[in-house]
What we know:
Strand content: 15-25%
GO biological process, one term: proteolysis
Number of helices: 16
Low-confidence stretches: 200-205, 588-597, 629-633
Distance between the termini: 66 Å
Shape: globular
Radius of gyration: 26 Å
Oligomer: single chain
Helix content: 10-25%
Strand order of the largest sheet: 12-13-11-14-15-16-17
Mean pLDDT: 87
Structural class: alpha+beta
Largest sheet: 7 strands, parallel
GO molecular function: serine-type endopeptidase activity
Amino acid sequence: MPEVAPRGEIAAKLTIHPQFLAKSYFPASLLSSTGLRLIGSRAIEITPRRMVRDAELKAMPTATLIVAGTAQQFARASQLLQSDALSGAMTAQFNRLERVEPFQASDRKHGLDLAHFDGWAETVLHASFDDRDILGAFVSLATRLGAAVETGRARTVGGLTFLPMRVEPQHASDFVRGIEDFSHLRALRNMPLLGADPVESEGAAFRSVDIAPALPDSPASSQDLRAVIFDGGFTAGTLPWVTSFDAAGVPVVASELPHGEAVTSAFLFGAIADPPQAVAAPYCNVDHVRVLPSNATDLKVSDVIDRIIDTLQAARDEARPYQLANLSLGPRLPIVDNDPHEWTVRLDDFLSLGDLFMTVAVGNDGVQGSDLGRIQPPADAVNAFAVGSSDGNHPRSRRAPYSCLGPGRSPGLVKPDAVTFGGVRGSPVRLIDPTSGMIRQQYGTSYSAPLALRLAAGIQTAIAQDIRPIMLHALLISRAQMTARIHDQTEVGWGVLPESVDDILFSAPDEVVVMYQGMIAKGQPIRAAVPLPAGLATDERVQIAATFAYRAPVDPAHPVSYTRSGLEVRFQPDGISSANFFSKTDFDAEQSLRQDALKWETCRHKKRTFELERLTAPSFLIRYQGRDEGAGDEDALRDPVTGSLLPTNEQPSALPFALIVRLKVPNVSDLAEHVLNQFNVLAEVTLRAQVQT
């Protein structure tokens, strides 16, 4: 039927044998010889029919490539397979395919529940900016089938276009039957609700009888740092450190004010001790942008992400970008490995430039277990800092029961990134209510996220040198505390964040911390030395802890290869030969989706111990690496709304990175002095004494 097959193209799935997932095995010649084009991919677990060298058969993760082509092009593939003149290289590419099958309607309807369908649907198309004809064909078909299509809300990132639409519930079944075979339709699902705090349903949000301590009358420590919170609003004029805005088009509804004010209070003043102590001036001023509720209904999410991205982009366009941002709201549904949500994709796309550090709450449905209680979009964004809740402030604190669980999606499996105290029943987090002057007691990841952002603001304000947003990410991870005996990485990520900025900035006398930050482009490797001074009088083993983080452009059509490019980091104890340092995480089975999967993780953290004599010229070698599969890098250079090329300074041709090396030599109490004397290229970090941490 032409109406479901624009350009005469149909879609099929090519499932790769699990032992041939490395990018060097990508079937580029097969696709180019047949004229088939790669439009997407998905992860899948299969038991192959045969293993290399007759190894034991077992279930293994692999990738399914989604390709599009005409009937003639698929016939050409069949003819090639049967040809006696088929080259050895082409034969090998065919042999690495475990299955070839149609991309069926059932593949497109994960997340569609007609029994609970309320009239709003999310559709995802395999359509880039160059595929407007495909979008037009889909809109025409959907409209003919009775849908009200929000064409003005079509948003394209990479090879995917996200399009909301409304369908009368009584006609939903007929609509689905008519649209489900559209060849370039990737996903059709219910529109999710916005998340809620666990306290709302359990009735545990309450005001205490405690009067809040007096607020300071001094200005914020930094007048230059720009921070923004997206939430339910803030009463204008209540606090001098807050500028309140309404996003364009947001309805005039004040029902979300208490949540927005509590989140903002957490960022400005932190959690209030019991009994209360004096409150210091905030680290910086903050803009509060009201983005709730939705125009359609206060439970929908489609237009809220527009307001967030539009606000951030406007600040960037005006050359006054925000450096810090917090998001304590999002769609209330667990992430899906094969189909990243629009919120995740659009935030990842914006954050890939590295000029903004954003904390995102992971969600509050953790009590529902590892499936339904998995982290919620956009906490799976690889370029954001996902924050969960712990039940206390000390390093041995555990995940709060409501806090959503990891893992994230590869290459960001370690999610949440970290946890911090967000209150629990019986021990809520105490926040200043700016409108009443009382203490409000609540709990939820909504408050953990701004508390983590407050730590980042304290670091940024305290350090005199220029600290890039990616360095804030690495610094927080480097000081997160994780105890293997009591912590699970799916629950706490890299660990429990310290309560104080001082705990991040200051080190023991026998320890030195070196921070590297910058941009790495293709063909321009960087060597970061581990500054181990010569002549140390010690028999102790040397401890090296390293935290490596970077930002990367994404390709949402290919969740298996979600980041378009990445950075490879190798530890070289002698400056020449490589040694293992960043071992695989707790997610070894999932990481084995590719033999080189660890290369693509956007954050890594590890501590190792070495014999001193082995470290003759230790360093980390960092290289840029691109992918062969997925969409071309040029697609990342376009604006997600207009499709026009981004300005040169916004094109992700180089990746921002941060590397923190923490060197500890026990019983050498003047280690920093030795390092500074022997490594003249290093400069000592200067702290602003007036900042209260």
